[in-house]
């Protein structure tokens, strides 16, 4: 460790080539800390790690029940998905049930995150659409909420829009902060995104884990989202994605969600804790190794589960020819060596 902050090392051969500093906090529903590294009171944007909160607001509005969203559709609302065919189908289904179409999405288009899906799309001569955006499920869900509540769909991205205010209000309740105390920015997909401390965010995910210290309506909505994510992990991320693997391996006992700029948040159902990790430089390659190491430190895994996630705990560094030349890993000896240098 350096100044009490752990690092994820990137090695090439036997040499540490780069390091990523990590801040993290695990806390219970009252914000009492079980584990902390770095400044846990500095503001952090949760980015897409807050999607389970957003999905819960959509469920709480009555839209999910009204339109009959199934577990796959609820999971993709909470997702940062790969843009694989089954993800696109689920997002289309949400929009169709609400009487909407892809043209109503304001998230922008990008190629599927999963390279084989992007290659297949290109081979078919098709251009990426907003449906392939990794946030399209969330946008479709918010649009459905607007239709259900009789709200304008053209301006749903505006922070002052009633749908966004409902979402932000639920987020504020979960993290235990007044809404006016939460800085609000704009996410990469255009949605309003709030910042809060790691401690408060961990408290929010502890509430996802326990469903206590929140209003009954919030708890019921969170449980619905949590169960959908556990039932359909592939829809939360997709092929070769850490979030999907974590849900599948643990049987939904750990509900994890990544966010841009090196954020990962987890609800630990067995211990009732929330864990939030932030890679200080935003490097996403450090997220799975850091999250797995911290979850292990908290005793969150059952026997064999950490081993089943080994490919994410120590991803290989490959050269252009595909040869393994290093790794991204948590190494205590590396921390000590760097600290002593």
Topology:
Layout: E1 7-12, E2 15-27, E3 33-37, E4 43-45, H1 51-60, H2 63-67, H3 71-77, H4 85-97, H5 115-123, H6 136-149, H7 162-175, E5 184-186, E6 192-197, H8 198-210, H9 216-231, H10 242-249, E7 254-259, E8 263-268, E9 273-279, H11 287-297, H12 305-308, H13 310-313, E10 316-318, E11 324-329, H14 332-340
Antiparallel strand pairs: 1-2, 1-11, 2-3, 2-9, 4-6, 5-6, 7-8, 8-9, 10-11
Helix pairs in contact: 1-6, 1-7, 1-9, 3-4, 3-6, 3-9, 4-6, 7-8
How do you describe this structure in short?
This protein has 341 residues and is α+β, with helices and mostly antiparallel strands. It is 40% helix and 19% strand.
Oligomer: single chain
| CATH architecture label | 3-Layer(aba) Sandwich
Main sheet? Answer: 8 strands, antiparallel
Count of discrete structural domains: 1
In total, the number of strands is 11
Q: Measured on Cα atoms, how large is the radius of gyration? A: 19 Å
DSSP strand (E) fraction?
A: 15-25%
Helix content: 40-55%
Q: Which regions are unreliable across 5 or more consecutive residues at pLDDT < 50?
A: 334-341
How many DSSP H or I helices?
14
Please report the distance between the alpha carbons of the first and last residues: 12 Å
What sort of overall outline do the alpha carbons produce when their principal axes are compared? globular
CATH topology, by name, is Beta-lactamase
Structural class: alpha+beta
Order of helices and strands: EEEEHHHHHHHEEHHHEEEHHHEEH
CATH class categorisation: Alpha Beta
Name the average pLDDT.
95
């Amino acid at each position: 460790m350096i100044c009490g902050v752990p690092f994820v090392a990137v090695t090439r051969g036997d040499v540490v080539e780069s390091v990523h500093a990590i801040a993290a906090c695990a806390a219970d529903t009252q914000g009492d800390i079980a584990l902390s590294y770095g400044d846990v009171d500095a503001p952090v944007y949760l980015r897409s790690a807050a999607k389970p909160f957003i999905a819960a607001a959509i469920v709480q509005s009555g839209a999910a029940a009204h339109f009959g969203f199934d577990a796959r559709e609820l999971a993709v609302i909470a997702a940062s998905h790969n843009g694989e065919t089954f993800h696109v189908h689920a997002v289309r289904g949400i929009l169709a049930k609400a009487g909407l179409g892809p043209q109503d999405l304001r998230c922008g288009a990008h190629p599927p995150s999963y390279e084989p899906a992007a290659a297949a799309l290109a081979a078919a001569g098709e251009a990426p659409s907003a449906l392939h955006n990794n946030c399209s499920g969330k946008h479709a869900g918010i649009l459905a909420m607007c239709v259900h509540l009789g709200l304008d769909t053209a301006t749903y991205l505006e922070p002052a829009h009633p749908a966004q205010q409902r979402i932000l209000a639920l987020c504020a309740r979960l993290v235990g902060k007044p809404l006016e105390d939460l800085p609000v920015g704009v996410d990469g997909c255009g949605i309003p995104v709030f910042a809060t401390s790691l401690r408060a965010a961990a408290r929010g995910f502890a509430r996802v884990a326990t469903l206590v210290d929140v209003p009954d309506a919030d708890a019921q909505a969170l449980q619905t989202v949590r169960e959908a994510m556990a039932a359909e992990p592939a829809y939360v991320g997709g092929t070769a994605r850490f979030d999907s693997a974590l849900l599948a391996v643990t049987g939904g006992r750990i509900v994890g969600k990544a966010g841009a700029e090196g954020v990962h948040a987890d609800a630990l159902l067995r211990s009732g804790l929330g864990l939030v990790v932030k890679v200080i430089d935003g490097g996403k390659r450090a997220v799975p190794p850091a999250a797995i190491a911290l979850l292990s430190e908290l005793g969150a895994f059952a026997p064999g589960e950490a081993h089943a996630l080994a490919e994410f705990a120590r991803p290989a560094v490959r050269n252009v020819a595909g040869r393994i030349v290093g790794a991204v890993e948590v190494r205590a000896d590396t921390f000590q060596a760097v600290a002593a240098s």
